[in-house]
Amino acid sequence: MPSRSLGAILAILLSMAVSAHAQGAGGAPAATQVPDNSAFEVTTTREAGNFYSLSVPGGNVGVLVGPDGILMVDTQYPQVTDYMIAAVRKISSLPIRYLINTHYHGDHAGGDSKLAKMGTVIFARDEVRAALMRPGVAADGSPTPPAPPAGLPIVTYREALTFHMDDEEVSVFPLPRGHSAGDSLVIFHSADVMMTGDVFRTVAFPLIDAADGGSLDGLVDGVGLAIGLSGPNTKIVSGHGPTSDRAGMILWKDMITMVRDRVSEMIREGKTQDEVVALHLTADFEAKTSRPAGSGDRFVGQVYARLKAAK
Predict the structure, then answer these.
(1) Which of 52, 191, 219, 242 is placed for a possible disulfide with 63 were both Cys, Cβ 3.0 to 4.6 Å?
(2) β-strands 235-237, 193-195 pairing
(3) Tell me: the pLDDT tens digits for 37-94?
(4) CB 164 within 8 A of CB 173
(5) 244, 265, 282 — which closes off a domain?
(6) Is 201 exposed, middle or buried (0-12, 13-18, 19+ CB in 10 A)?
(7) How far apart are CA 52 and CA 44, in angstroms?
(8) What are the beta bridge partners of residue 244?
(9) Residue 202's closest CA among 274, 76, 143, 289?
(10) Nearby residues of 116 by Cβ (< 8 Å), 6 or more positions away
(11) Using CA atoms, how far apart are residues 90 and 67, in angstroms rounded to an integer?
């Protein structure tokens, strides 16, 4: 996949961001429930070299630190972002220069405007900016307003990007329409760490934002690309949950593919959604992971509904 060097233009973009983003704070449409104040304790883990993951129950954030400044991946909900920034400040007092969004959901991009007001340049796919500019619907069905101008990415991309900073090469790859229409994969090559956003999660089961153009087949393809770009020792920081590895991501892809193929076959056989869900197709996967037994039934039901509607 082709890449594009950032070059000297970023210095200009940085100065543009300070003025363009000084309009206020806000959050993107939420994809999962906002954690309450008791869940705001941030766990900081040095994954490798100068790369850290910051975690709360609502999700994971990536932080690259070094003499060139700080690069972050995702920001969490706006209610959590201040806690994330405080955790970053315990690692380094250098400016947070760049932010990459793995997708547009509020638990990953909700705090963008807070960083933008600090002068951070936000990078995301074209589809992410478009999604942030339109009204959305939260997980509970309530309407959410568009993100304020301060929270919009100032640099958007359609092809791969490469950042060169802090003695690290960081690759950003657009993925097929899977979890959402604007998923990105971020790889820190020297550290041998990959951030997947919600294309891969080590807690819960897949969530496909069909309203945004996400798709089951695209999710499978995106995970396959991530597997192909990872190595045997790559640390995989998923959108939610503990750090995993290539084997964990392969198991995840196999589970999704199995559910898709078996549900499709059962639809052809005339089985109802209740009959298919009652088979607990994800039981073996749940037994091999930390996911509660039976928690995959919701995912199986969603797969059935989507495949049935496509017939």
Answers:
(1) 52
(2) parallel
(3) 555 789 999 999 999 999 987 799 999 999 999 999 999 988 889 999 999 999 999 9
(4) no
(5) 244
(6) buried
(7) 7
(8) 236
(9) 289
(10) 17, 21, 122, 150, 151, 154
(11) 15
Tokens 């995301």 map to which residue?
124
Indicate the residue type of 137.
V
pLDDT band at 136 (very low <50, low <70, confident <90, very high): confident
Question: Domain of 118: which CATH number?
Answer: 3.60.15.10
Kindly state whether residues 155 and 138 are assigned to the same domain. yes
The whole-model pTM stands at: 0.86
Q: What is the mean pLDDT of the chain?
A: 87
Please name the residue that has the structure tokens 């960083």. Answer: 115
Q: What is the 3-state secondary structure (H, E, C) of the chain?
A: CCCCECCCHHHHHHHHHHHHCCCCCCCCCCCCCCCCHHHCCCEEEEEECCEEEEEECCEEEEEECCCCCEEEECCCCHHHHHHHHHHHHHHCCCCEEEEECCCCCHHHHCCHHHHHCCCCEEEEEHHHHHHHHCCEECCCCCEECCCCHHHCCCEEECCCEEEEECCEEEEEEECCCCCCCCCEEEEECCCCEEECHHHCCCCCCCCCCHHHCCCHHHHHHHHHHHHHHCCCCCEEECCCCCCECHHHHHHHHHHHHHHHHHHHHHHHCCCCHHHHHCCCCCHHHHHHCCCCCCCCHHHHHHHHHHHHHHC
Q: How far is CA 69 from the centre of its chain?
A: 22
Distance separating alpha carbons of residues 290 and 286, to the nearest angstrom: 7
Are residues 180 and 213 in contact, defined by beta-carbon separation less than 8 angstroms?
yes
- Give tens-digit pLDDT for 200-223: 999 999 999 998 999 999 999 999
- HSE (CB half, 13 Å, CA atoms) of 257? 11
Co-location of 208 and 192 in the same domain = yes
Sole residue written with tokens 């309203």: 211
Cα 303 to the chain's mean position, in Å? Answer: 21
